[in-house]
Amino acid sequence: MKIVEEFKQFAIKGNMVDMAVGIIIGGAFGKIISSLVNDVIMPPLGLLLGGVNFTDLKLNLKAAGMDEAGNAIEAVTLNYGMFIQTFIDFLIIAFAIFMMIRAMNKMKKKEEEAPTLPPDPTKEEKLLTEIRDLLKK
Description:
With 137 residues, the protein is mainly alpha-helical. The chain has one domain: Non-ribosomal Peptide Synthetase Peptidyl Carrier Protein, Chain A (Orthogonal Bundle), CATH 1.10.1200.120. The protein is built from four helices and four strands. The strands form two sheets. A two-stranded antiparallel sheet has the order 1-4. A hairpin with a 5-residue loop joins β2 (65-66) and β3 (72-73). The radius of gyration is 31 Å and the shape is elongated. The termini are far apart.
């Protein structure tokens, strides 16, 4: 039963909700970044490289053909263009997350550097201060 109680504590604290929200937003963020790379960054980059579409880059290992029975055999290809595309997606996502965390750390640092007022003295401290002042007189 201890595991069930620990799970309830975990769920009640909101960790599961935070995690679910993070996963959902992360999925949407990934789609946005993929669209940014595929639709905005890669076309001009391909144009600069002579009209190359990275997703079409592949190394043909075995040509398509027909077997003895007349069935079509698909070509065997090494799709390195898709790898380049995915790698660029990763770099952009990693950079965006880095910039977001960097901004959050800066805000946190400013918050820590903000001067805080000293707490009000307790009744005991006030009483001791009065006693000290009386003894000085």
